[in-house]
Amino acid sequence: MPAAPLEWSDLRVFLAIARAGSLGGAGRRLGQSQPTMGRRLRALEAAVGARLFQRSSSGFSLTDEGIIMLRHAEVMEAEAQALARELTGRDGSLEGVLRLTCSDWFGRIMLAPVIAEFQRLNPAVILELLTDARIYSLARREADLVIRIADFDEPEVIARRLVTVGYGLYAKPETWQPVTGDGAGCPLIVMDTSFGAMPDVAWLTRTFPNAHIAARSNSRDVQAQLCALGVGLAVLPVPLGETTAGIEKVKLDIDPPSRDNWLGFHMDLRRLPRLRAFVDLLVARLSSP
Q1: Which is more confidently placed, 135 or 217?
Q2: pTM above 0.85, yes or no
Q3: Mean pLDDT on 249-276
Q4: Does residue 1 sit within a domain?
Q5: Best label site of 148, 223, 251, 283, fewest CB within 10 Å?
Q6: Domain that holds residue 193
């Protein structure tokens, strides 16, 4: 492969296509159109003098030359990200952007009041809150702070338990009163199949073996609204259930299992003042004893 000068922006395009497997998916990752991605890929292949992807009806797959480029491009990406994190971590001002990610209901009910208070105290900091189901990478600076129900096992992440959230079974008033150990005739609203291993799903199956599933959603907010509309019974975080109009907690001998919520951020950002200030406020407002 002949040597050719390469721009980092071209390698970002290459990595996005390699990871997404399509021009459209890569374009969405980078905020560019599919035709633009196609033109930039053709220009990159012309610059290196090699075909980097095999095109087929199922998408884009790496050629041998593409595999070689992927190995080196990922090393360059990791070094660029490490440099950006270290330089950001040395920024001593309480200004700039802080990107957070958590689940939809947690962001709306638990995090929004803390964000509002922090912004009043630090108006020069722009807080971005992402609440979709995607898992954001701390190493790639896709997020500065992640709040989730699973602990962090990455060695470069500083993590701590933030808050333990209780869960309850909720229903529209005067609808169903399920009997523990049975549940016959009771419709259930549960997580979608990709979240079938969640503790509340196992609790529902064990506690009401004869109930039937009426709806599934990966969004607790959607589950709460379906519950309020009378679709069925739903296991919800208590802060969400108690603030959703038109539903009430079902009295049972035993409630669903509670869940720990963890916060984590990359160790390179531990000295970033705006991150430290937000984490301190977040812990003060939400942390379980």
Answers
A1: 217
A2: no
A3: 91
A4: no
A5: 251
A6: 167-257
